[in-house]
Design goal:
The structure is a single chain. By secondary structure, the chain is an alpha+beta fold. The C terminus is likely disordered. It has one domain. The longest helix has 13 residues. The chain is globular, with a radius of gyration of 18 Å.
Length: 179
């Protein structure tokens, strides 16, 4: 559901009051270089062409900066509400790789804008592998040139053994302090 969608041209802009997602599915993958697949869906054709080249080319970067200075497209989404979601997560950045499935995810993302100084607040709650409550909080901005992600994952009432080696690398400090 979209509520109050306003579009404009010259410069291109999109302003949405609310997006509501229900019974959604997302496949989130962190590649071996640490890039998140969902971030690439906000790339422009110039970004995609530049990422396909093996050597850095100054022309796409210069064009991107010029577009920003001359009225680059703007996106503003006041609120994204979610319910009944399922997320399949794979982290291929660490070795050995880590996979998790989150169920019954619901919550909201508020204040999403394509301005570098803006951060959207994230609050999601659900279940990890249908056995433990999970809460994801923090801030994101996937709409800017250098995407921003600062999320906290809180999973309670489970044994950590299903998480190893991920827990050993990323959760060890929290698990030792929790005792």
């Amino acid at each position: 559901m979209l509520d109050n969608l306003n579009l404009g041209v010259n410069p291109t802009r999109m302003d949405v009051k609310q997006i509501a997602l229900s019974d959604f599915f997302a496949r989130v993958i962190v590649d071996p270089q640490g890039n998140v697949n969902l971030i690439s869906m906000f790339d422009t054709p110039a970004d995609q062409a530049a990422s396909g080249q093996k050597t850095a080319d100054a022309k796409p970067q210069a064009a991107k900066k010029t577009a920003s200075a001359t009225g680059r497209s703007t996106i503003k989404i006041d609120r994204i509400s979610m319910s009944g979601g399922e997320v399949d997560y794979s982290d291929n950045y660490i070795k050995p790789h880590f996979n998790a499935r989150f169920h019954d995810l619901g919550g909201k993302v508020t204040g999403l804008e394509s301005m570098a100084e803006k951060r959207a607040d994230v609050l999601l709650e659900g279940m990890w592998s249908k056995q433990a409550p999970v809460k994801i909080t923090g801030q994101i901005n996937p709409l800017i040139e250098d995407p921003y992600v600062d999320l906290n994952l809180n999973i309670s009432d489970i044994e950590l053994s299903p998480f190893s080696p991920y827990s050993g690398k990323y959760l060890a400090i929290s698990s030792t302090r929790a005792s």
